[in-house]
Amino acid sequence: MEYCLGEPDGSATMWTVAADTDLDGDGRLESVGIDIDHDGLIDDVLADLDVDGVADHAVVDADGDGRPDDYFTDDGTGTWAVSVDRGGGVRWFGLDGIEQPGIGPGVAVDLDGDGEAAERLADSDGDGLADRAFGIGLAWVDTDGDGRWDVRLGDGDGDGRADSAGPL
Known about the structure:
168 residues; mainly beta; 6-stranded antiparallel sheet; 5-stranded antiparallel sheet; globular
């Protein structure tokens, strides 16, 4: 997994490391333990929840009580700028338009209704409503912020980049 962290002076360093932590408890290592908050403990993680090889979530145990307190997503520019409120979890709409209750971090859902809970949700604008969903070879995007999925992206050749896009 790749990740990049910057310093206050504007410098940044890129790392490539093997995942060593299972953030969501599904038995798959998708995260790397790190000390993001500089408390001297390896109790924070960077996670690759969309399985593209690049960290897209940061989970920080800010007060050291052992429970994750702060969640951040990459805003798409490589900046850990979007804080996600996890009090009630991220709400989401299925492709059938039915609203689903809030879920916790890294929990897989069955967005496409195929009977497999394989899609992961992201709230890139921090409003508590999922606006990105990532599955194996597929992604969905809510482009206008209304909670309804507008675009479906496909990765037919498995290189981690969209090969096709179409409206829903």
